[in-house]
Amino acid sequence: MYVVKSPLSDANLKTVSEALQGALVDLIDLSLVAKQIHWNVVGPRFRSVHLQLDEVVTVARQHSDTVAERCAALGVSPDGRAATVAVGSGIGVTPEGWVDDTTAVGTLVDALGAVIARMRERVAATEEPDPVSQDILIGITADLEKQHWMFQAENG
Amino acid sequence: MYVVKSPLSDANLKTVSEALQGALVDLIDLSLVAKQIHWNVVGPRFRSVHLQLDEVVTVARQHSDTVAERCAALGVSPDGRAATVAVGSGIGVTPEGWVDDTTAVGTLVDALGAVIARMRERVAATEEPDPVSQDILIGITADLEKQHWMFQAENG
Amino acid sequence: MYVVKSPLSDANLKTVSEALQGALVDLIDLSLVAKQIHWNVVGPRFRSVHLQLDEVVTVARQHSDTVAERCAALGVSPDGRAATVAVGSGIGVTPEGWVDDTTAVGTLVDALGAVIARMRERVAATEEPDPVSQDILIGITADLEKQHWMFQAENG
Amino acid sequence: MYVVKSPLSDANLKTVSEALQGALVDLIDLSLVAKQIHWNVVGPRFRSVHLQLDEVVTVARQHSDTVAERCAALGVSPDGRAATVAVGSGIGVTPEGWVDDTTAVGTLVDALGAVIARMRERVAATEEPDPVSQDILIGITADLEKQHWMFQAENG
Amino acid sequence: MYVVKSPLSDANLKTVSEALQGALVDLIDLSLVAKQIHWNVVGPRFRSVHLQLDEVVTVARQHSDTVAERCAALGVSPDGRAATVAVGSGIGVTPEGWVDDTTAVGTLVDALGAVIARMRERVAATEEPDPVSQDILIGITADLEKQHWMFQAENG
Amino acid sequence: MYVVKSPLSDANLKTVSEALQGALVDLIDLSLVAKQIHWNVVGPRFRSVHLQLDEVVTVARQHSDTVAERCAALGVSPDGRAATVAVGSGIGVTPEGWVDDTTAVGTLVDALGAVIARMRERVAATEEPDPVSQDILIGITADLEKQHWMFQAENG
Amino acid sequence: MYVVKSPLSDANLKTVSEALQGALVDLIDLSLVAKQIHWNVVGPRFRSVHLQLDEVVTVARQHSDTVAERCAALGVSPDGRAATVAVGSGIGVTPEGWVDDTTAVGTLVDALGAVIARMRERVAATEEPDPVSQDILIGITADLEKQHWMFQAENG
Amino acid sequence: MYVVKSPLSDANLKTVSEALQGALVDLIDLSLVAKQIHWNVVGPRFRSVHLQLDEVVTVARQHSDTVAERCAALGVSPDGRAATVAVGSGIGVTPEGWVDDTTAVGTLVDALGAVIARMRERVAATEEPDPVSQDILIGITADLEKQHWMFQAENG
Amino acid sequence: MYVVKSPLSDANLKTVSEALQGALVDLIDLSLVAKQIHWNVVGPRFRSVHLQLDEVVTVARQHSDTVAERCAALGVSPDGRAATVAVGSGIGVTPEGWVDDTTAVGTLVDALGAVIARMRERVAATEEPDPVSQDILIGITADLEKQHWMFQAENG
Amino acid sequence: MYVVKSPLSDANLKTVSEALQGALVDLIDLSLVAKQIHWNVVGPRFRSVHLQLDEVVTVARQHSDTVAERCAALGVSPDGRAATVAVGSGIGVTPEGWVDDTTAVGTLVDALGAVIARMRERVAATEEPDPVSQDILIGITADLEKQHWMFQAENG
Amino acid sequence: MYVVKSPLSDANLKTVSEALQGALVDLIDLSLVAKQIHWNVVGPRFRSVHLQLDEVVTVARQHSDTVAERCAALGVSPDGRAATVAVGSGIGVTPEGWVDDTTAVGTLVDALGAVIARMRERVAATEEPDPVSQDILIGITADLEKQHWMFQAENG
Amino acid sequence: MYVVKSPLSDANLKTVSEALQGALVDLIDLSLVAKQIHWNVVGPRFRSVHLQLDEVVTVARQHSDTVAERCAALGVSPDGRAATVAVGSGIGVTPEGWVDDTTAVGTLVDALGAVIARMRERVAATEEPDPVSQDILIGITADLEKQHWMFQAENG
User: Fold this and answer.
1) Distance from the Cα of residue D66 to its chain's centroid
2) Contact criterion met (CB < 8 Å) for D50 and E150
3) J–K touching, 3+ CB–CB pairs within 8 Å
4) In chain C, which residues have pLDDT < 50?
5) Which of E148, I46, I134, J23 has its CB 3.0 to 4.6 Å from that of I126, i.e. a possible disulfide?
6) CB < 8 Å to J155, chain G
7) pLDDT in tens, D113-146
């Protein structure tokens, strides 16, 4: 059986891997939600919002890969399956069907806000047990807060 | 309210949009399953399988985008949310945790086989109502069957 | 004198070359109309519409080249001269002068709609006589219907 | 209604915008004529002439865009519609059908010669009222005269 | 022993794999013949024909790879060995030694014509048993017919 | 001490170097103003305006470098320090704080208009003393007037 | 009115936004000072110093954009106007006119030293209130200290 | 008739052209054999071997082109037709059908070994009569021996 | 003599420069060890391991350059000479000669593990005296731990 | 015999073609002189001067091509043969052998100065007869004066 | 004074540097002759010959740089000045004025033939005294003989 | 155990492998020495020398890889470990600490001179036993002698 001797103590590993697993689920869901609205947005800002959402998708996919591989690097199996994401995501339910552009922007403001709040908790939680993982989470938070600003400004 | 006058009759539209929506769910799940195993595979073929899986992810993501936008182009809202994928995918349950490389390859052989079987049904179902959608589904099937061969050969 | 022995029978060649010549005229006119509005659009969505129209121009130019060379490959001389386009295009008259962005989007919705309707007839007409030409026309229709969706959503 | 306060006086604006509108029509027609012969040329120099013509198309398309946007920048709506081009171009009628390579080269020599003569008049006419527009027309003339030389040399 | 459960019935698989194997042999031989003349052509059109032939080589090599891998994807071993090609190709014997440019162009017109005729039969034969393979063969036929036109026009 | 023997007479050099130094200050300030609004714009056109402003920044930075190095090439030291820019710019005061998108576009229309008016005077002033410097200023004016059109059209 | 609910408390936000606004002003001025000397440097090391200074400009421009957008992401309007920079920069006055290369290098050593000292204070000040902003400031400091070393070594 | 006055004497030309013609046949066959196994390999090392074989194909194709054009440059017509290759290659018969990965690697070890042995004889034979051709053959031998090592190490 | 006034106190500088000098030696040795095994690995995983090792070399070379220049930026001369590396590296002795692939992977697991352990100590040691250097060491540790995971998984 | 009907009168053509032919000879010689010193420069500024001289070569080669083709476009045969250059260049004799870096820079200052003086006369001479040729000569003068500044500053 | 202790004995150095200096003069003249005909060629093969000549220019320029720097590396000053080239080149006089395409090709056949004959003598002369220089001359000869073949074939 | 049947006799193999192993050690040490001085150089030529040294590093790294893989291709295990390099290099001891630029250049002149002398012996030694290895060593010597010239000229 595959066992990795982690550079962290068991207690620290538990804290850090929970933070990373939570981040993974949030980021995968963010990529799915952003794509969902990318396809369903309607209205005079269609093209602007459609394109901006693909930047969110790119950011979310890259970071989800980094976080999952960081999890593996610490010797803990990451879980990014659809059912896990559907259950564990910190983003609220996205309604089905077409969505007008103002609502679309608002949905992203809410989704990013929810993920950022949880990311900041993870940044705080990982500082002591593993500054390497924390540094990754800090970088993710910076990118998400930049996206958050742009969607807020778009509806400002 | 947003209504698009589709180039297809109502009956044809129903058939085609069901095929496209089904393909969308399968392809998103394929991308998530391939990533899951990309992160969790273990064994002497780790690097080969790890890299090959990212090619599957790329293929699945590109085609899922094409299929969803084709759906929208016909005037039907596509649904690619996590919960929809978790419930509707044609791929069986992927077990959690580390997976040895032979099992990993076998999982992909099964997953691709399941999706291909449903894709071939969709190719047949869309031929009459919409040859444009059918052509897209044929191209997807060709790519999936190529991947299917490579994973079969890897475990051959 | 230059005569090409076509792979098609005379009757089939007549059907197919008429479809291709018609598609050529429509696509050249689409590229000219899109450029005309690209230059004349005015309003709060100026930049979005201005940029989107250049994507239509790129699509229309590439497909017009493919269609004309397909015509030549079957041994029939293609005709893409200005006067031929002015007379034979399926797109209605584009009014001169500045155009506000909502009207601009609407003009494209109409122009694309008109061309798509004729393309679908050509897809049907060429299926039996020449599946190779049909496959080209199917690909063009897919691209035009995607553009059609995006302009409809923009005014949705 | 959209009105731009031009940096030019009314009289100067009239002179300059006529020069630009004339250049626009000539350049669009040059791009269409070059494509027409690109598709219809036949003979031992087919490949050379076919490729050289695409360079003319590229040059003509780039400059037509610059000229039309310069027109808009001065506050005058440019007109590049098919019917306008068919009526107003300075290039003589291009016969339909296949064309042998020597005739093809000669047709371009004539077409470029006609456009160049009109461009040189526009260069002279715009010198006083708007050196900025003149500079653009000078650059276009340089490119067209280079193409003119190459087609003359090809039949020399 | 390596056995793949094909998505096609045995009868359909036999038809389709024969079409693909035949296409493979023709395309490899086309690449060899085009290279042979690329090296041996002589005359005032040397450079044009020399370069055009390398485009044929590129097209033939890419499609031969696609066809062979499609064969494998259906569970049938492809055969592209020199002896198989020498015996099974649909292209007539290419004479050895230097070849003047007019003859070179004529040789390609004949070689492409022979391959195209067999490709069109394969397109017809695969329509029912496997639209996925047919779609690949249609795309190949389109490319070959474009090359066929250009060599015909070169000697036109 | 560093003295360059200029190709221009003293009188001409004075005229030309004043024109270039003035252009340098205007262009640096334009780049700072465009960045300021790039960061502070708010509203439904946020993304469009935000991106368009970065194109202004790129244009202004490239031209300021060309103008300053032209100044040096004539043997006159250019001055692009913050205090010099703050005092000498032809652009009016930009208010601090967030700015809604319509005001943002209007600010650029005004800023570009002010710089263009001064540039046209410089084009006229340098024609006799140094056609080389004039040619550079003409090219800058063309780019600024193109940007001016696009912002006017955006608020048109 | 545009109000962003910041992820930081009011006290923390005040500390962090002051640090970011100060960094913004320093970095913009650094880019202007480096350009000023890039244009005015004279002496046997002209080319080396001229090129090295453009690397400083690139670094300073990229980081100023990151810092300003970070400020906006926290809900505080950044101020990068010329007058603000002229007054608030931590870099001493740069004398006008030509500058010999040794003095030029010394000027950069001093300018970078001044900015670095203030950056290190900002790194310390932001550690508690916002590790995300601190991480950005740490990265900037690393780049500036690398440039500082290279200019010191150049005059060493 | 086309006759080139070779820079070599008749006797030297005979030696050198035989060496080059022999190398041409070996290299074309090497490219066909490598592709054959690229398509037919099966087993746990499928992906590694499949990819490595395409590097052999690239090497063999590039060198075969160089050798054939060197032949032509000396005034001797090269012969790379399928039948010539099938008869004259120094590589033993490749069996048809699927091949397991260990056998696949062994086949390449043998094929490369056979070609290298003949190449070394050609290097020796051409040293005196034509150091220019020898230098080309030396470069080819270096590349083949590098590939030979990698396949030996793969089965080591 | 060359003296740099460091931004750190003498005590802090001693701690930080020892950490950086130690990291430099470890990273250079890691690049040499990875190359050594890149050349000497033998076995069925030859190609996978051979390629993965070049990624380690790239990572180690980039980070060694960053660390050495960081050392210089603090005013302390870095030492990366062969003898210094041979004596001071934290990696155990690599045996000479060919190495089978399983041993090769194990050697990297050990080498990376040894370097990571020391890096984590350096991360802890530099936190107080210099967060800028610490941030660089954290980024290096993240990359090394990712490589560590992949080699562990390869032998898992 | 090859005769081109020039767009210029005979008198104007004589003036313009003499200017262009003179520019051609100067620019070719400039490229040869710059290469000569590129190879022969010696001294502490070797690398800086060596690299800067290759930028002069690039500039001179590009402009010589433009000028010669402009000459041909006007129907006058350009002459860029070595003997013509050796006799007609406006650049003084470059001494043979190694050259120290200060002398090398001085040689370029002189060579560029001589060519610029003649270029400015050509700019004046061509203004009336052909503004298109004048515009090309103005652009060349701008580039040469920029190089002139940089070599003056290097020895300043 | 600058003296380099050459790796060659005085006698060997004399032989080798004469060979390199001779090659330098021939290659520079070849680049000038090819450009001269590139501009002056006329006739139905204008475009083919015009483009092929630029490939000769590129080859001749690259090799002349290599040869001159090889000369410098041996401690002997290379001489590539116009007068040296005009006197010492092995290429016969190129007549002035327009040249029809057949003559143009013939001129290149002769020019390349003359240079190749001298290059082969240099290859023989340098074998013993400096195999490093010989290897460079062998590579140049291979490229020139390839060009020689293509021009012979063009007129064949 | 891994044994490769070398294409060389035992005696020849011994001679060639010693030459290659010696070259490997020299080239690795050259890369380490060049990096050491790249980091430690100080003085007015800092930037020039710093950059030139990275070109030496690139050259040395590429050639060391080629030489080591050539060694492996002949069936002999290469040894590039730090201790082997520290003991066996032909380059003298590089002193620790900062180094002024003139000394830095001199160190490279000496280091390159030492390696070149040994390389020329290896070129002579390998001519008979293996012209393939000799050709590689000749190419390396050419590159090193070019670098040697540039550092000599820099201190000339």
Assistant:
1) 11
2) yes
3) yes
4) none
5) I134
6) 44
7) 999 999 999 999 999 999 999 999 999 999 999 9
Chain L nearest-CA distance from I66, in A, is 10
pLDDT exceeds 70 at position L34: yes
Contact A36 B80 (CB under 8 A): yes
Distance of CA G8 to the CA centre of its chain: 24
* Separation in Å, CA of A73 to nearest CA in chain I: 5
Amino acid code (one letter) for E88? G
Backbone phi and psi for residue B5, each to the nearest 5 degrees, phi listed first: -80, 110
> Rounded to an integer, what distance in angstroms lies between the CA atom of residue J25 and that of residue H103?
66
If you average pLDDT over residues F91-102, what whole number do you get? 96
**Closest to H148 (Cα-Cα) out of L79, L21, L70:** L70
Give residue B103's identity as a one-letter amino acid code.
Answer: T
Question: What is the distance between the alpha carbons of residues E12 and E128, in angstroms, rounded to a whole number?
Answer: 8
Q: Is the pLDDT of residue I21 over 80?
A: yes
Q: Are H70 and H136 in contact (CB under 8 A)?
A: yes
Whose tokens are 């030549």? That residue is: C72
Which chains does H contact via 3+ CB–CB distances below 8 A? B, E, I, K, L
| ipTM, interface predicted TM-score of the complex | 0.97
| Other beta carbons within 10 Å of I117 | 11
- Contact residues of J toward K, CB < 8 A: 2, 28-29, 32-33, 35-36, 39-40, 42, 65, 68-69, 71-72, 77-83, 85-86, 89, 94, 96-98, 100
Q: Report residue J2: phi and psi, to 5°.
A: -80, 110
Kindly determine whether residue B142 and residue E7, on different chains, have CB atoms separated by under 8 Å: no
Nearest by CB: L142 against K4, K72, K135: K135
Residues J105-121 pLDDT 10s: 999 999 999 999 999 99
Q: Closest to I73 (Cβ–Cβ): which among G134, G138, G145?
A: G145
Give the whole-angstrom CA distance, residue C114 versus residue C95. Answer: 17
Residues 6+ apart with CB under 8 A from K115: K26, K27, K30, K90, K91, K144
User: What is the least distance, in Å, from the CA of G154 to any CA of chain F?
Assistant: 22
Q: What's the rounded Cα separation, in Å, for the pair E88 and A156?
A: 70
Where does residue F52 fall: left (phi above 0), alpha (psi -120 to 50 degrees), or beta otherwise?
alpha
CA J48, CA G43: separation in Å to the nearest integer?
12
Q: Give the pLDDT of residue F36.
A: 98
Q: How far apart are CA A86 and CA A84, in angstroms?
A: 6
Contacting residues of C for D72, CB less than 8 Å apart: 39-40
**Looking at beta carbons, which residues of chain C come within 8 Å of A100?**
156
Total length of chain H = 156
**pLDDT (average), residues B90-114:** 97
Burial G60-92 (b: 16+ CB within 10 A, else e): bbebbbbbbbbbbbbbbbbbbbbbbbbebbbbe
- Is residue G128 within 8 A of residue G104, CB to CB? The reply is no
Q: Phi and psi for A41 in degrees, rounded to 5?
A: -70, 145
Residue L85 has, within 13 A of its CA and on its CB side, a CA count of: 28
pLDDT in tens, chain G (156 residues): 687 888 899 999 999 999 999 999 999 999 999 999 999 999 999 999 999 999 999 999 999 999 999 999 999 999 999 999 999 999 999 999 999 999 999 999 999 999 999 999 999 999 999 999 999 999 999 999 999 999 999 998
Task: Look at E156 and D46 and tell me if their CB atoms are within 8 Å.
Answer: yes
Q: Are H75 and K155 a contacting pair, CB within 8 Å?
A: no
Residues of chain D predicted below pLDDT 70: 1
What is d(CA L122, CA L119) in angstroms, rounded to the nearest whole number? 5
Query: Do J81 and K94 touch, CB atoms closer than 8 A?
Result: yes
Pairwise CA distance, residues D156 & D151, whole Å: 8
* Three-state SS at J76: coil
Task: Judge whether residue E1 has pLDDT over 80.
Answer: no
